């Protein structure tokens, strides 16, 4: 039996983003995002309730300050005590996990979405994803960008404005573009 475009997307395989099922998921997420982002003045408990409606997992005490943007939501897992500041973007075409007690500054962008390097595949409109995993007790400075397929180890620090193109070892500090150990 042939796999659906959504199944391909979730597995990190090439998929067609214009597929009706994928487009329906995107449309449903837009409705949810409008409600979530309108809840800026709501209590943290109310916002967490809204997050749990859409995200794969939301740990106790997790806070995501609106405005927040994501593609689907259902591929995002945030652990207990996670904090995302204003204007974070997560392109979650496949799994994005954020470990307990991780602090993420404003305007951080986390990309699981990727595009083929082969120009013919790009011209066909194909896309794919690579999971992003951020460990526990990580600090990500404002404006940092974490690219597809990156794993950030526990207790790491990512400097503000860093562009993280490679895995970050546990306990290390990286900064710059591209991010390098400091």
Automatic annotation (TrEMBL):
It comes from the Bacteria. Transmembrane segments: none annotated. The keyword Transferase applies. Keywords: Acyltransferase, Nodulation, Repeat, Transferase. Belongs to the transferase hexapeptide repeat family. One of its GO terms (cellular component) is cytosol. InterPro entries: Hexapep, Hexapep_transf_CS, Hexapeptide_acetyltransf, Mac_dom, Trimer_LpxA-like_sf. GO terms for molecular function: acetyltransferase activity; O-acyltransferase activity. The lineage of its organism: Bacteria, Pseudomonadati, Pseudomonadota, Alphaproteobacteria, Hyphomicrobiales. It holds the Pfam family Mac. Residues 6-60 form the Maltose/galactoside acetyltransferase domain. This is Nodulation protein L. Acetyltransferase implicated in the O-acetylation of Nod factors.
């Amino acid at each position: 039996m042939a796999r659906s475009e959504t199944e391909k997307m979730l597995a990190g395989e090439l998929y067609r983003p214009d597929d009706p099922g994928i487009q329906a998921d995107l449309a449903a997420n837009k409705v949810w995002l409008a409600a979530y982002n309108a809840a800026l003045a709501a209590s943290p408990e109310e916002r967490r309730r809204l997050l749990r409606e859409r995200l794969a997992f939301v740990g106790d005490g997790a806070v995501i300050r609106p405005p927040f943007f994501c593609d689907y939501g259902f591929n995002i897992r945030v652990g207990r005590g996670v904090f995302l500041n204003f204007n974070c973007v997560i392109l979650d075409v496949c799994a994005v996990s954020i470990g307990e007690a991780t602090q993420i500054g404003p305007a951080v962008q986390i990309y699981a979405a990727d595009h083929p390097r082969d120009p013919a595949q790009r011209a066909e409109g194909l896309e794919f994803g690579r999971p992003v995993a951020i460990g526990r007790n990580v600090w990500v400075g404002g404006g940092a960008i974490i690219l597809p397929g990156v794993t950030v180890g526990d207790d790491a620090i990512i400097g503000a404005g860093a562009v993280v193109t490679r895995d970050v070892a546990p306990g290390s500090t990286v900064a710059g573009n591209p991010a390098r150990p400091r």
